[in-house]
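Lay summary. Proteins are chains of building blocks that fold into shapes, and those shapes determine what they do. In this project we predict the shape from the chain. Here is one chain we studied, written as its sequence of building blocks.
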Amino acid sequence: MKLFDLLKQRNMIKDISDTALAKKFLNEQKTRFYCGFDPSSTSLTVGHLVQVVRSKILQSFGHTPIIVIGGATGLIGDPKQNHERKLISLESSLENSKHIEAQLRNLLGDNAIYLNNYEWLKDINLVDYLREYGKFFPINYMLSKDTISKRLEKGISYTEFSYMIIQSIDFLHLYNEYNCKIQFGGSDQWGNITSGLELIRKKNHESEVLGLSSPLLLKSDGTKFGKSESGTLWLDKKLTSPYELYQYFLNSSDQDVINYLKLLTTLNNSEINEYQSKMNENPGSRLAQKKLAEEVVIMVHGIKELNISKEVTNALFYGKFDNLAIESFEILEKTLQKTSNMNLIEALIELKLASSKREAREFINNNAIQINGKKINELDYKFLEEKFYHNKYLVIRRGKKKYGIVKKNVKDIN
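And here is the predicted shape, written in a compact code that computers can read:
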């Protein structure tokens, strides 16, 4: 299958500045394309995987990604539709950029060019900015851009208003210095992408440049993708554990999972169609969800972290913890409610397994409480009599699915 058709089938293209040129560049040439990442945080989120996976697919067809970290544009702030962004310091922007570049190198490897736009934007003085670039952007053209027009009623600073000019300079620089012909981005970036095309055409009198966008990834119910009960899902395992990432995708709905397989994995179309058929035949098997969770965790964190995530998942499902490695207990510690209280009734309340002492006593008397898989019906049960896994951890279970972790304090360990 031709690359252009493949990307369309996988819902990876929404806006196209020139369809004929897109087919020429994607199907017939080995082209450099660029995609930008904002260093507003120390880590990318799962939402960024759409751009990463598309870049990996283009790599597999011989195209070269130019990954631009917005060390300078991150100081300006891409306008949001509802409010002004909070400015970050140069130190934070450059430090965040290092972390994000490391993540992207891990995901995309050495067959990519990694740049930070601070390197070329920092040297442009105000007069050159206005004369060499600003004169190519009529105010009425800028006001017509969707995000800008939506902000006019509430107000927008000149700083954010000028963001599209700054990003357009990026595309011009990459075209001149790296022969970059394509810019990819999310559909919310379409105004900035087309502004870059216009700047290249006006400055260089060049028409063979291409802009492409992808749809923003939403859940089938219209809610934002990439949010869990605990908040944003990050690619840094210190912020979001591989287990949490695994669980998020394992619990994808049947309405969403096939689209996620297309956008967030490099499985080929025939494999995805096969999982679609299996799901239609037996939705309860959740094979598509399991494959999605496996592929994402392997891509982001590797096979070792996937195995730990599956080990923890199976332990919680079957209530068996005897053979768990200490790394798995460390995941449980971060995932479940935790206490160091050595009184069973008080621990149940702290772990939110009971709302009161009276309810805690009822659960214990009704054999609803298990410790390390053993039912407990003693109201004055002493934890120190129980074996702690790895001399640190004890698992409390209420009913079938409610869990908590008791972790010994150092002073409690003999």
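What the prediction tells us: The domain at 333-412 is CATH 3.10.290.10 (Structural Genomics Hypothetical 15.5 Kd Protein In mrcA-pckA Intergenic Region; Chain A).
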